[in-house]
UniProtKB/TrEMBL annotation:
Catalyzes the interconversion of L-alanine and D-alanine. May also act on other amino acids. CDD domains: PLPDE_III_AR. One of its GO terms (molecular function) is alanine racemase activity. Gene3D superfamilies: Alanine racemase (3.20.20.10), Lyase, Ornithine Decarboxylase, Chain A, domain 1 (2.40.37.10). SMART domains: Ala_racemase_C. This is Alanine racemase. It catalyses: L-alanine = D-alanine. The modification N6-(pyridoxal phosphate)lysine is found at residue 38. It is an enzyme of class 5 (isomerase).
Length: 409
């Protein structure tokens, strides 16, 4: 038996399952689905997401680093796993030991892998990465045929199972660059075919491209965002994707303060009336409002930020950050601190000490220290091996006495 910690993340495995089925249905039975579970499954927990994705039709998994791939294998995941980040030749041994698929753009790595393959008498699968305009990893298109021919001639233990590229702008509104990247990739695939080189898998589409441009699905798509309920469409959610994530905590203190009091660091908020202030034990260290640094300054972003700052200055409700308590949207006031934030409860007399709060903490900024609690059929399930739960005995001590009980599955 176990009890909920005060602050936790509720991950809805049924929603993840349904989102996987939605994308699988959309692409149809002949196109393979790679579920991207990098970054700890976009914060949800990579092993749990991987299991659900596979159960619901994903054939491949994608992660960034070798370590993430090894973690999945150690947790019993058997599906093919592609590693996106280039590995060093000295990591080749682990690729083979854990049966992972590296992304390759260097002959040094190919040569080392081939040697390992000869020693162990094993075929080693690789996917060749092509740079069609992202300028991160990969060969330029005009280097690929030569590269493939050398592999074919010299490195008999290497099987080029796939070839892929990554799109830069599929998530944003303009279509031109996405189309251009796809065109470059398609031309290359045409040339490869002409040379009579056979590669079973070709893939370029992320979530947005897989949804928006059916022709870019080729024979596999690599999707992350849609699995986690984030629609590639900015406005309406045509896909009916389900929400997978809720960040929850509780009100741990409520106090009455007189009009004119300043609240929190830097006196950023002054009470205009006698007020009731609630405290939630969640702050920047937990990932609340950790904003990414915007270093691409355009006139548009400058104007946007200026308007934002003006609205903030006048305390306009549009810019007001809020949490949800008992179905009501309650304003956060004052500056968020390391592990606390404060809310104005003056207008909400039915909100009491200990009430549950839902906070807008982004998936990728949420601290990995915060425990994930998995729900299946609306019931919390016990996840024995989850890395975020292991060694977290301290959480039990901070749990709410007499709080909700989580049964073992
Ligand atoms: C993250 C990633 C994806 C998935 O992108 P989404 O927009 O989340 O679908 C696909 N391919 C690569 C190489 C990635 O790094």
């Amino acid at each position: 038996m176990d009890i909920y910690p005060i602050t936790y993340i509720q991950v809805d495995l049924d929603a993840i399952a349904e989102n996987v089925r939605i994308i699988k249905t959309l692409i149809g039975p002949h196109i393979k689905l790679m579920a991207v579970v990098k970054g700890n499954g976009y914060g949800h927990g990579s092993t749990e997401v991987a299991k659900v994705a596979i159960e619901n039709g994903a054939e491949y998994l994608g992660v960034s680093t070798l370590d993430e791939g090894i973690e999945l294998r150690n947790n019993g995941i058997k599906s093919p796993i592609l590693i996106f980040t280039p590995i060093f030749p000295e990591q080749g041994e682990n690729i083979v030991n854990y049966n992972l698929i590296p992304s390759v753009h260097s002959l040094d790595l190919v040569s080392t892998l081939n040697k390992i393959g000869e020693e162990k008498n094993k075929e080693i699968k690789i996917h060749v990465c092509v740079d069609t305009g992202f300028s991160r990893f990969g060969l330029f298109p005009d280097q690929v045929i030569h590269f493939l021919n050398i592999i074919k001639r010299r490195y008999k233990k290497i099987e080029v199972e796939g070839i892929y590229s990554h799109l830069s702008t599929a998530n944003t509104e303009g279509h031109d660059f996405t189309r251009k990247q796809f065109e470059v990739f398609s031309d290359l695939l045409g040339n490869i075919k002409q040379q009579n080189i056979k590669i079973p898998l070709a893939h370029i589409a992320n979530s947005a491209a897989a949804v928006k441009y059916p022709e870019m699905r080729l024979n596999m798509v690599r999707v992350g965002n849609v699995i986690y309920g984030q629609s590639p469409f900015l406005k309406n959610n045509d896909l009916n994707l389900r929400e997978t994530w809720k960040f929850k905590s509780r009100i741990v203190s409520i106090k009455n303060i007189p009009k004119g009091s300043s609240i929190g660091y830097n006196r950023e908020y002054i009470a205009k009336r006698d007020s009731v202030i609630g405290v939630i034990p969640v702050g920047h260290a937990d990932g609340l409002f950790v904003d990414f640094y915007e270093n691409h300054i355009t006139v548009k972003t400058l104007i946007k930020n200026l308007i934002k700052d003006l609205l903030k200055f006048f305390n306009h409700p549009i810019i007001q950050k809020r949490v949800i308590v008992k179905g009501k949207s309650v304003p956060i006031i004052g500056r968020v601190s390391m592990q606390h934030c404060m809310v104005d409860l003056t207008d909400y007399s039915d909100i009491k000490l200990g009430d549950e709060v839902e906070l807008p903490v982004r998936r990728v900024t949420a601290s990995s220290r915060i425990r994930r609690i998995y729900f299946k059929n609306r019931q919390p399930i016990c996840v024995e091996d989850s890395p975020v739960e292991k060694g977290n005995e301290a959480l039990v001590q901070t749990s709410v006495p007499g709080g909700l009980v989580v049964g073992k599955d």
